[in-house]
Write a structure and sequence with these properties.
Layout: H1 10-24, E1 30-36, H2 43-53, E2 64-70, E3 75-80, H3 82-85, H4 92-105, H5 109-127, E4 143-145
Parallel strand pairs: 1-2, 1-4
Antiparallel strand pairs: 2-3
Helix pairs in contact: 1-5, 4-5
Length: about 150
């Protein structure tokens, strides 16, 4: 599979977006998914660029979480901003990565994303609960680039 359009069906994309909305419903945290075909860079370094490009480093409480996927490279990165990284257990992102990877290895891409998103949402809700007046600072849509 090398086309980002083949990674998730339109229906699956909507289910991932619904998971993002559910995960964000009780937190001020922000979760984004970015999918692209390929990167020539180290995936983590490129995820940091995408994090900045999506303005995720501008959240008020530094509690954005990005799931970045390079489809052709068969790689993904979960990147949490400073605020969330400071409060989750030291192995939280590794455990979340392993859950997503176990689904991805079986070709269950939507399920992996949904479980990773909901898991991140639980921690965001625990450490950054929603309060009256919390705006949704970032789009819930999946962003894509063809590079």
């Amino acid at each position: 599979m090398s086309k980002i359009e083949d990674f998730l069906t339109a229906e699956e994309e909507q289910e991932v977006i619904a998971a993002i909305r559910k995960a964000e419903s009780n937190t001020s945290g922000e979760i984004r998914v970015h999918i692209e075909r390929h990167t020539d860079m180290d995936p983590l370094e490129h995820a940091l660029e995408i994090f900045h490009w999506l303005k995720m480093d501008n959240t008020r409480e530094e509690n954005g979480v990005l799931i970045y996927i390079a489809v052709e490279d068969r790689s993904f990165v979960i990147y949490g901003d400073k605020g969330i990284n400071a409060v989750v257990a030291s192995d939280f992102w590794d455990c979340t990565r392993d859950i997503i990877a176990s689904h991805f290895k079986k070709g269950h891409f939507k399920q992996g994303l949904v479980e990773g998103i909901l898991r991140a949402g639980e921690q965001l809700e625990k450490h950054f609960p929603w309060h009256h007046g919390n705006p949704n600072e970032l789009s819930d849509q999946i962003s894509k680039s063809t590079s």
